[in-house]
Amino acid sequence: MSSLTEKDRPIVQFLLNTGTCPRCVLRFCCVGSQMLYRHPHQDLLKDLQEFLKNSQENEGTVCLDVADPPCKRIRLEHREEGADDVNHNGAIPQLPLADSGNAAMESSAGKVCNVCLGILQQFCEADFVKKVCQKVNSADYQFTSFVFSVSLPPQLSVRERAAWLGVKQQMRNLGLPLAKDDIVQLKEAYKWIIHPQLSEELGVPADGKSLFEVSVVFAHPETEEECHFLATACPDCFKPAKNKQSVFTRMAVIKALEKIKEEDFLKHFPCPPSSPKNLCDALEIQCNNGAVFVAGRYNKYSRNLPQTPWIIDGERKLESSVEELISEHLMAEFKADSFNFSSSGREDVDVRTLGNGRPFAIELVNPRRIHFTAEEMKRLQQAINDSSDKIRVRDLQLVTRSAIGRMKEGEEEKTKTYSALIWTDKAIQREDIAFLDDIKELKLDQKTPLRVLHRRPLAVRCRLIHTMKSEYIDEHHFRLHLKTQAGTYIKEFVHGDFGRTKPNIGALLNRTADILELDVESVDVDWPPTLAD
């Protein structure tokens, strides 16, 4: 329903008399006209007053009708079977109040609404909209649209239920059956009013799928204890949560209101609710941009550089890392709050990554800048490469969140190629290692290495060495090129890790073997796409 009719008159009069604002009156009358809610507060009040005066004379509808799309509703109770909107004579009984329009006008004028606590009053005005837009503009975000969200005090749900039960009780006293079962949500009505104003002031459209969010958090300290009685009546609905400061969340309160019996509710809370002394407080006006994802491949040329910060017991062991050398430039250019680094596997601090590099992706959280041309990304890549001789980045590009999944898809089924410099305690000749070249698809059982047991669960992992090619250097040294299943522990395959990896190079050669140097020569993941130089 998008307009008021004569059957709404008792509800309009009752709510205005008890201190409800005009916009909440429209909500309780299920008015779905978005344009109507945007009318000035005082104009709406005058229109409702005129409606109360003239409604009996004009049996049709008051001139408040504007066509709009269907609106979201909040169900308050089940529709009564056979409910009717008229009495036995076919007429709607009138509230027994003299000069009802003026009385309602005086009751609502200048008061804080007893249902929305002022949210549909002062916080819909141009001054507040400008305050929100000043906050957005000062934060210096790039955006082409926005989505608006609002966090309401949980006690609003209690007051809304109380107001509806008050209406229901009043209609029953008048001998009027009540046929309504839903009202327009406060959040929905608020967005109808605020969206066009924000859009005009910011110069961009409101879009429910936008990654740029403008949010307002409301609180009302004066009434914050009003929902506490629900914890006694419905204790199962209020469970402590680590990330919540209070058990009285909006969803917990709504769940309790669905569960509590009407008579129990009426024992604890006045119906209709009383008018508060103070308006809500807009605690926070926040902006947040959806994450941006950057991907590429990196080479690591240092044998003294970890992939991620190396910190043990709060003490930093090395001054930098691959992650930091890349991310510090991205953080500065995208003006992000934080980042999350991920890659296709990882190398040890003393292992180089050569060849076409290792795929990586960085999630930049809440970036202020989000638009970069291909040329700007090339310059950013060059800046990273110029800043250090320990790493080099290629194919730096913007990607989607879903595309990052390709980096992890079938990770253990992918292959990696290594080059290992190996030492043996006993002298070797070329013919002693030549047989390694003929071994294909060698199956390993690798118990979690001792060196990573502090951060990996104890397990036996089956891995494959697809091929090996030996390169003799001298009596105690040779180089071994390996193509392996991703996730294979190469160092342990060489020295055996005290028998935890079987078979191993030492066992195959029947002598003690150890690894002196290890390089990753290729990571066979076809992502991200190669870019032209």
If you had to describe this structure to a student in words, what would you say it looks like?
The chain has 533 residues and is an alpha+beta fold. It has three domains: 6-54 and 113-226 and 269-288, no CATH class; 291-412, Alpha-Beta Plaits, CATH 3.30.70; 416-523, Alpha-Beta Plaits (2-Layer Sandwich). Helix content is 31%, strand content 23%. The strands form four sheets. Strands 6, 9, 10, 11, 12, 13, 14, 15, 16 and 17 form a ten-stranded mixed beta sheet that branches. A hairpin with a 2-residue loop joins strand 14 (460-474) and strand 15. Helix 1 (9-17) crosses helix 5. The chain is elongated. Mean pLDDT is 88; it is low at 59-63 and 78-101.
SSE blueprint and pairings:
Elements: H1 9-17, H2 22-28, H3 34-37, H4 41-54, E1 73-75, H5 100-108, H6 126-138, E2 147-151, H7 155-173, E3 182-184, H8 186-202, E4 212-219, H9 229-233, H10 250-259, H11 262-268, E5 281-289, E6 292-300, E7 311-312, E8 315-316, H12 322-334, E9 338-343, E10 352-365, H13 374-387, E11 391-399, H14 401-408, E12 415-424, H15 430-433, E13 442-447, E14 460-474, E15 477-485, H16 490-495, E16 501-502, H17 505-509, E17 513-523
Parallel strand pairs: 2-4, 10-17
Antiparallel strand pairs: 1-3, 4-5, 6-10, 6-11, 7-8, 9-10, 12-15, 12-17, 13-14, 13-16, 14-15
Helix pairs in contact: 1-2, 1-5, 1-7, 4-5, 6-8, 7-10, 12-13
pLDDT averaged over residues: 88
Major sheet characteristics:
10 strands, mixed
End-to-end Cα distance: 62 Å
- Report the helical percentage: 25-40%
Count of the separate structural domains: 3
Question: What's the total count of β strands?
Answer: 17
Radius of gyration: 35 Å
Instruction: Label the overall shape.
Output: elongated
Strand content: 15-25%
Count of runs of 4 or more consecutive helical residues: 17
Enumerate the spans where pLDDT stays under 50 for 5 or more consecutive residues: 59-63, 78-101
The structure class reads alpha+beta
